[in-house]
Amino acid sequence: MYSRTQNENGSYNTRCLDCFMTIASCVACEKDLDFLESRHICPEKALAALLEIEKATTLAERN
Ligand SMILES: [Zn+2]
Fold this sequence. Notes:
Helix content is 48%, strand content 25%. By secondary structure, it is of the alpha+beta class. The chain has two helices and three strands, in the order βββαα. The model has no long low-confidence stretch (mean pLDDT 94). The longest helix is centred in the last third of the chain and has 20 residues. The site of zinc ion has 7 residues, from loops.
Protein backbone atom coordinates (compact mmCIF):
# COMPACT_ATOMS: atom_id res chain seq x y z
CA MET A 1 0.00 0.00 0.00
CA TYR A 2 1.32 3.37 -1.01
CA SER A 3 0.17 6.89 -0.32
CA ARG A 4 0.63 9.30 -3.18
CA THR A 5 0.50 13.04 -2.81
CA GLN A 6 0.91 15.76 -5.36
CA ASN A 7 3.04 18.86 -4.95
CA GLU A 8 2.01 22.33 -5.95
CA ASN A 9 4.25 22.16 -9.00
CA GLY A 10 2.47 19.01 -10.17
CA SER A 11 5.16 16.52 -9.20
CA TYR A 12 4.36 13.50 -7.04
CA ASN A 13 5.55 11.99 -3.81
CA THR A 14 4.92 8.44 -2.74
CA ARG A 15 5.19 6.87 0.68
CA CYS A 16 4.92 3.28 1.81
CA LEU A 17 2.10 2.82 4.32
CA ASP A 18 3.72 -0.27 5.81
CA CYS A 19 7.04 1.24 6.86
CA PHE A 20 6.16 4.96 6.40
CA MET A 21 9.25 5.45 4.32
CA THR A 22 9.18 8.08 1.59
CA ILE A 23 9.99 6.11 -1.51
CA ALA A 24 10.21 9.03 -3.89
CA SER A 25 9.54 12.73 -3.93
CA CYS A 26 9.20 15.26 -6.73
CA VAL A 27 8.58 12.59 -9.36
CA ALA A 28 7.41 14.14 -12.61
CA CYS A 29 5.09 11.46 -13.91
CA GLU A 30 2.83 8.83 -12.36
CA LYS A 31 4.34 6.07 -14.49
CA ASP A 32 7.61 6.55 -12.66
CA LEU A 33 5.77 6.13 -9.36
CA ASP A 34 4.64 2.65 -10.41
CA PHE A 35 8.22 1.75 -11.19
CA LEU A 36 9.65 3.19 -7.98
CA GLU A 37 6.95 1.57 -5.83
CA SER A 38 7.57 -1.80 -7.45
CA ARG A 39 11.26 -1.48 -6.62
CA HIS A 40 10.67 -0.70 -2.94
CA ILE A 41 11.84 -3.50 -0.70
CA CYS A 42 9.78 -2.95 2.40
CA PRO A 43 11.63 -3.63 5.67
CA GLU A 44 8.29 -4.13 7.43
CA LYS A 45 7.22 -6.80 4.98
CA ALA A 46 10.63 -8.43 5.02
CA LEU A 47 10.46 -8.58 8.82
CA ALA A 48 6.97 -10.05 8.75
CA ALA A 49 8.11 -12.69 6.28
CA LEU A 50 11.10 -13.48 8.48
CA LEU A 51 8.88 -13.91 11.53
CA GLU A 52 6.62 -16.23 9.57
CA ILE A 53 9.59 -18.40 8.65
CA GLU A 54 10.76 -18.42 12.25
CA LYS A 55 7.32 -19.39 13.48
CA ALA A 56 7.13 -22.21 10.96
CA THR A 57 10.60 -23.41 11.94
CA THR A 58 9.74 -23.36 15.64
CA LEU A 59 6.57 -25.35 15.02
CA ALA A 60 8.48 -27.85 12.91
CA GLU A 61 11.03 -28.31 15.70
CA ARG A 62 8.32 -28.95 18.26
CA ASN A 63 6.66 -31.67 16.22
ZN1 LIG B 1 7.71 -0.15 3.01
